[in-house]
Design a protein that fits this description.
Length: 127
């Protein structure tokens, strides 16, 4: 099951709530307007769903931010990528069944690092 609902869900961002170890921080330290906007957009996405660092950077690029601005944003937000992996793993388990190794593979497919994928999977009922 190599699917992603992130792009479809992103179109329905509605409200701000704090999820998965995201600590909202001001984007004022960003040096350019696009960097501030990318940081704000990154937090908007993280308020709504769970992302890997690379997956979030890709999503920001999909939204039209340059690669360098997207990378700046994901490198300058306060977030626990391990907690994001746990949240993503739990999201998958709400809708489907996975073996431990299958869940790790799915998280790696979503561009979590191998260590983050293992951490996320091992903090669920799948492992």
């Amino acid at each position: 099951m190599r699917t992603t609902i992130k792009a479809a869900l992103a179109a329905t961002l509605l409200t701000s709530t704090v999820l998965g170890g995201v600590a909202l921080a001001p984007a004022a330290n960003a040096t350019t307007g696009p960097q501030r906007q990318a940081i704000g957009t990154a937090y908007d996405y993280l308020d709504f769903t769970h992302f890997s660092k690379a997956g979030l950077s890709d999503q920001l690029q999909y939204e039209g931010f340059s690669r360098s601005v997207s990378n700046y944003a994901v490198n300058h937000i306060k977030v626990s990528w391990n907690n994001q992996a746990v949240g993503s793993a739990k999201d998958y388990l709400r809708y489907s069944h996975f073996s431990c190794s299958g869940l790790i593979d799915q998280l790696e497919y979503e561009k979590f690092t191998a260590a983050q994928a293992r951490y996320g999977a091992h903090h669920t009922r799948a492992c």
